[in-house]
Amino acid sequence: MLNVVIFGPPGSGKGTQSENIIEKYNLAHISTGDLLRAEISGHTQLGTIAKSFIDKGELVPDETIIGMIDNKIESLVGSKGVIFDGFPRTVEQAKALEELLAEYKTKVSVMINLEVPKDELVERLLERGKVSGRSDDNLETIEKRINVYESQTKPVIDFYKKKRVYKSIKGVGSIEEIFGSISEVLDSVQ
Ligand code: B4P
User: What is the reported pTM?
Assistant: First the structure.
């Protein structure tokens, strides 16, 4: 299986590039952000918990996220591979993913880190906020999300560096240019 973790700060283009990757490489897609937003719009218990964290720009607790992935992963076994978008976001989540994949005798093939400067992130998310209706796309929450990324999510980079599956890509430029760099990486690990 080709298992890809697409990684980067909020607004770095994880969701945008995932769509391109799925189409070209025919992979299954797990976006924890999308799963959480679906729970919120379905007014489920999980959605109520998730909303209280997302609205503040905080991470949803690891146990909630890991349980959600655990429920989903079984249905993906047998696919060509999976793109993990927005997950893992903590070292604890990265360890849990490793254990879950090991149960199916597979592992993360590559982790792609989209590098984008803070100013550009803020600009993109404010722009998206004008049309997305997302409660977390406002300046105060965006600043909080970027700080949470720096303190809680960035350490995941070292986890994958140690596993020797880490690749960094410049996430600035046109969507097509960035996807070109991602394709080079994916073609080299296939
Ligand atoms: P996510 O839904 O994962 O949101 P994100 O980080 O904001 O988005 P992404 O990087 O995918 O940006 P996109 O491509 O859309 O998470 C939302 C929240 O859910 C988190 O803050 C957290 O609270 C919670 N959550 C999710 N997963 C979790 C987990 N594992 N653990 C705990 N909590 C979790 O791009 C953004 C904008 O930029 C778009 O408008 C796009 O059009 C634009 N853009 C993209 N590429 C561009 C380019 N090259 N040039 C110009 N603009 C570009």
Answer: 0.94
